[in-house]
Design a protein that fits this description.
Blueprint lengths: L5 E2 L2 E3 L1 E2 L33 E3 L26 H8 L4 E12 L5 E2 L8 E8 L1 H11 L3 E4 L1 E4 L4 E6 L7 E4 L4 E4 L7 E6 L5 E7 L2 E2 L13 E3 L3 E5 L1 E3 L4 E9 L4 H4 L8 E8 L9 H8 L17
Parallel strand pairs: 7-12
Antiparallel strand pairs: 1-6, 2-4, 3-5, 4-16, 5-19, 7-20, 8-11, 9-10, 10-13, 11-12, 13-17, 14-15, 14-16, 14-20, 18-19
């Protein structure tokens, strides 16, 4: 019996135009390389849809949006804050307010708590990325780009003017290079004829409500053959706080006393009830290995009682 996970509302985000200057890539980075699938994402990416409350997680309509950083640090968090002030590298700060209006539409997950695919992008400044790549045992330059599932879904990070951010690919992961003060956007691309829902976290925090990321929370919906952009923590039905790289001590996660997961961006994709997906390699392998005569020998009769 399938567990219903009906979304009563989905919000369509009207993204604000990008602003600010284009940051320079690290000195050691080669010219831009890599691809974003069959073609580059269009300049006007499709407006994303954001799944609202289904009774299992708070909705924006009920006021569950990300809260601005607190001015004062509670005593229980002060010890950890001292440690965060000494950390090097980058986190993601609560940036300027950007217009991002929303509307609603329905979505029902095929499997409420089991995503089709999970992907993770790690980020840091140039020195931090180099150190992490050395620990991983080798790397190659490319874009901050990751295909997931059977290759039909993709995630990448772009800068203020839509330029793909530089990244080092290691045997274990992808390490994105950011710069202090640089604004970035998370692009999600769907190359199938089905809608998918994407739950997105930055520094371990859900980009919708600013609290700890969980798979049972609702996320953005990516339409068939479309690309959407997520450019900040959602403040309300009409605004987001832009994603900007900054010092760990100035990060949104640090302000909330939750900086342990700084430096990581996660995306979980969920399928919709009734959707049809392309054949996966594991399923094709199983069919190749199917045995037309599995019972070659007679089995003894069942015991008689």
């Amino acid at each position: 019996m399938r567990t219903s996970n009906l979304v009563h509302g989905v919000m369509t985000v009207m993204l604000a135009a990008a602003c600010g200057g284009q940051p320079a890539p690290p000195a050691e980075a080669p010219p831009a390389s890599g691809t974003w699938g069959a073609s580059e994402a269009p300049a006007g990416a499709a407006s994303p849809e954001l799944a609202a409350d289904d009774g299992r997680a708070p909705s924006l309509g009920a006021g569950a949006a990300a809260a601005a950083p607190r001015a004062l640090t509670p005593p229980s968090e002060r010890e950890e804050q001292v440690v965060e002030r000494e950390r090097s590298g980058l986190g993601t700060s609560w940036g300027e307010t950007r217009s991002s209006r929303v509307s609603s539409a329905p979505f029902e997950r095929e499997a409420p708590s089991s995503p089709l695919a999970l992907t993770t992008l790690y980020y840091n400044d140039a020195r931090g990325v180099a150190a992490q790549a050395q620990r991983d045992g080798g790397s190659a330059w490319g874009e901050a780009f990751e295909r997931v599932g059977s290759g039909e879904l993709a995630v990448r990070l772009v800068g203020e003017r839509g330029q793909p951010l530089r990244a080092l690919r290691t045997p274990q992961r992808q390490l994105v290079v950011g710069e202090d003060g640089e604004r970035y956007v998370i692009q999600l691309r769907n190359d199938t004829g089905n809608r998918v829902e994407a739950v997105v976290t930055v520094d371990g925090l859900d980009v919708i409500d600013g609290e700890d990321g969980r798979l049972d929370k609702r996320g953005y919906i990516v339409g068939p053959f479309s690309t959407i952009e997520i450019d900040g923590f959602r403040r309300s039905m009409s605004e987001v706080a832009a994603f900007r790289f900054g010092r760990v001590r100035d990060s949104y996660a640090s302000a909330k006393g939750k900086a342990r997961n700084v430096g990581v961006i996660g995306v979980a994709f969920f399928t919709e009830v009734g959707s049809r997906w392309p054949w996966s390699e594991p399923e094709l392998d199983r069919r190749e290995q199917a045995d037309p005569f599995p019972g070659r020998f007679a089995a003894p009769p069942p015991p008689r009682w």
